[in-house]
């Protein structure tokens, strides 16, 4: 055990240009060695005609001073030591460092003024965490304390509360209502804000995850085609997109979720429609089983159909026999389109021109 402690060396802090921090570390080291009196009072000098005891005390003081000088020599860089003219004792070196880097009263006042301004304009940034902002604020407060102005804890607490981000506003109100600011410690405030920050972060991550799930579920089943027709998987009419679950489908008639327009319960009978089995056009038709054998037949006007069909080819005054299609009616029956042309109707002395399809086995006209 004695051999192990023999090789233990106390690390000496290196001077890095920040005098206040370095002086605090060095003072703590020298006091732990019970040698701080040599910095404050200097080396004991034996008087003339000193007694044996006085001479021994002076020699012991000089030996201790050499130990302190050894710590200072290890801590201070050679280039800095060369600028110190008087370095006979440890007190000479310490005082020289203090004058060189802490400055005169005028310099300290100017430095303190700059620190006050920095403290007042300090505000939390979006990219900073609670720990980062507390560290920055307390660093400035400690620098001010080193220059001779000690900030009260309540002043630091109030500064932090009024300079947090807007998302902490409700937290600040809660803290002020539940605590006495005059007795609230900096550590207590920091712990409260860290808990709230972690809660906000968890909620934000949960919202992003939920939004991603909704986005994925919406995009599932979307096809790359842009035609209009029936989807091959579930028979529903579409506009170029594969079908996802109906829970996200909005009806264009009643604007409710859960069904398509052709399945809307608000349609009367919900059966007077037809779909066209092609990717480029949709034929919406209605059907009736009424049979009329005269040229003076009944027409259903304003039925809401986008296309119309009759079964009498001889009624057309112009006709395109090359137009061939097939439609599926609301009762699941199919009808073949044999052509397309124009028909004139005279209603109340008004002549109407209709563009109509010719279909097989279709007797009643829809307009």
Automatic annotation (TrEMBL):
The keyword Iron does not apply. GO terms for molecular function: nucleic acid binding; zinc ion binding. InterPro entries: PolX-like_BBD, Znf_CCHC, Znf_CCHC_sf. SUPFAM superfamilies: Retrovirus zinc finger-like domains. Pfam families: Pol_BBD, Retrotran_gag_2. Residues 251-266 form the CCHC-type domain. It comes from the Eukaryota. Keywords: Metal-binding, Zinc, Zinc-finger. PROSITE patterns: ZF_CCHC. The keyword Zinc applies. Residues 205-242 are annotated as: Disordered. PANTHER family: OS04G0629600 PROTEIN, PTHR35317:SF34. This is CCHC-type domain-containing protein. It comes from Trifolium subterraneum (Subterranean clover).
